[in-house]
Amino acid sequence: MFGPSHDPWLAAGLLLFVFPAASRYRVAPAQQVEPVQAASVISSKAAPSASLPSPPQRPHLTAEQIGDIDEVRGRYQAAIDAYSQVTPHTPVVWNKMGVAYQMMFALKHAAHCYKESLKLDRENSIALNNLGTIDDQLKDFASGERMYRKALKLDPNNALFLKNLGTNLLVQGKYDRGWDAFKQALAINPQVFENHFGPQTDDPIPARARGAANYYKARSCARAGLADCAVNYLRQALHEGFVTSSKIALDSEFSLLRANPDFQQLLAGQ
Which CATH class is domain 8-29+62-267? Predict the structure, then answer.
């Protein structure tokens, strides 16, 4: 997910993994799924010929690989059915099942899967991050923050975890700390706000909270010298009513954008 003192409207509203595009918590997949190459097919009606090569054999797919394919294609229940056939369940498989359940908004089942993953691997930072996104969806932001911090203790340079933490903090109205998390995430991965790290779910953050997140994303991008990124998020923050053109003009974080034509048009209200 972004970067926005404490306002009650922020705590009232909010995953993820999440989810309008500008304000999303990202759920971390257990691993990247390699594409499966489709085998060539030779018609059974073709006349046999000694010159024809033997038809290639279709690779045997495990239940987990079938689940991976179904999950990538958005067939989440089919993915769960496939993963359920894997024995024994590994921490990775439990996490994959959790992601599939979460994509169907079956949060109770998703949380159960992530916790089962952690029972087998207490240092599974991905499952901790994903549990944090469940907490945020349920508006238990304090618990979500704890999950992200636990994940970051295990993997301190994970830009995804930092971005999720930043969004969580901003929704709680902890603007300075949320912005710090965004800056750290952007320093690790300049595309952290744009990349899709895996499955995601609709983020129930209210519009004004999204505006706060987008505003602090814009500040982070401006500080990193990413003008287009900054202008894009400023435009969204304006649209969501969090900030005004006059406030943007007075913010020193955007001083390097003064000569940018798009920034000038933004301030002019175009």
Answer: mainly alpha
